Model the fold of this input.
Amino acid sequence: MSKPDFVYVTYIETTPQKLWEALTSSAFTRQYFFNTDIVTDWKVGSKFAYVQNGKTNDEGEILEADPPKRLSYSFHSLMNETSIRETPSRVTFVLEPLGKVVRLTLTHDNFPPESVVLQPISNGWPKILSGLKSLLETGRSI
Done:
């Protein structure tokens, strides 16, 4: 049996460079990702953390960083004891310019069977990326 994946595609009227900055800069993520900071230097092999109000919610390691085209990191949820015991999954962003818009494809995969993280991220990522799209296109997050 194959492992479950979460894939989300959206089209954002912006440039790949601006979208990359929005994905990798805490100045942006605080605005659309529920006041969350990203802590990392974006070098392959470096540690990575999503920190909200001083608490690390998720952590991982940078697997690939090819600005402004592709970004990937391992993702280990720290939301509860069950998720902490679960093996890390993987998040990959692919940015593809298409005229005035950028197609952003998020793939979150490598979940173990019966993952406790898959359902929360399946609800969370659409909200986060909707806020990102609104911020880049209107200057305001939802």
Remarks:
- The two ends are 38 Å apart (CA to CA).
